[in-house]
Amino acid sequence: MTVTETSLPGVLIIEPQMFSDARGWFMETYSKKKTPQIDCDFVQDNHSLSAQKGTIRGIHFQHPPMAQAKLLRCARGELMDFAVDLRPDSVTFKQWICVELSAENKRQLFIPRGFGHAFLSLTDNVELLYKTDNYYSPEHDDSILWSDPELNIDWGIDSPILSDKDRTAKLLKDIIL
C-alpha cells in the first residue's frame, strides 16, 4: 500500500496494491500492519448509494466523545471526497481538501477525528464504503451547510441534490466545536 500525506495533517491518501490476472484482480483494502499511520481501531462499516450524479452528502461530523475517524473508498462510480479541518486549535482550521475516489482508481481517503466529511457524486449510482472508529451517535451527529461561505468550498456545482438534513444544516459560525 502506498500512503501519501495531504496538506491537512493526518488526512491520508491510501493506494492499495492490486494483483491482476486472467481471472480478475485482488487487493487488500485495509491492513493495520501496512498502514501504521492509521492509529485507530475500526468498529463499524458503512455503505451508501447515491443514485444520481450531482448528489452532495455532508458536511457531516460527530462531536466528542463520539468523533469518528473514517477510511473511505468508492466501490462503484466516481466521486469527489472532501475533508474539512474542524479543529479550532489547528493551523489548518477551516481548510479543506478534495480527492477523487473511484471504482477505477481504487484510491482511499483516511480522515482522522476532528474533521468534517462530505462527497459529491460525479456519476450515477455511486457506492461509497467506509470504516469508522466510533459508532454512529445521533446525539453527537452534526452537519455544516455545504455552501457555507466561511469554508468557501469549490464543489463545481450550483444546484446539488441534497437530503433535508444537508439542505437545513447550520453554518460553521453557529456550531460550537
Describe this structure in words.
With 177 residues, this protein is an all-beta fold. It is built from one helix and 13 strands. It has a single domain, classed as Jelly Rolls (Sandwich), CATH 2.60.120.10. It has one helix at 164-167, and strands at 2-5, 12-15, 18-21, 24-27, 44-50, 56-62, 70-76, 78-85, 96-102, 108-111, 115-121, 126-132, 141-143. The strands form three sheets. The chain has a six-stranded antiparallel beta sheet with strand order 1-2-10-7-12-5, with no helix packed on it. The protein has a five-stranded antiparallel beta sheet with strand order 9-8-11-6-13, with no helix packed on it. 34% of the residues are buried.
Layout of helices and strands, plus pairs?
Layout lengths: L1 E4 L6 E4 L2 E4 L2 E4 L16 E7 L5 E7 L7 E7 L1 E8 L10 E7 L5 E4 L3 E7 L4 E7 L8 E3 L20 H4 L10
Antiparallel strand pairs: 1-2, 2-10, 3-4, 5-12, 6-11, 6-13, 7-10, 7-12, 8-9, 8-11
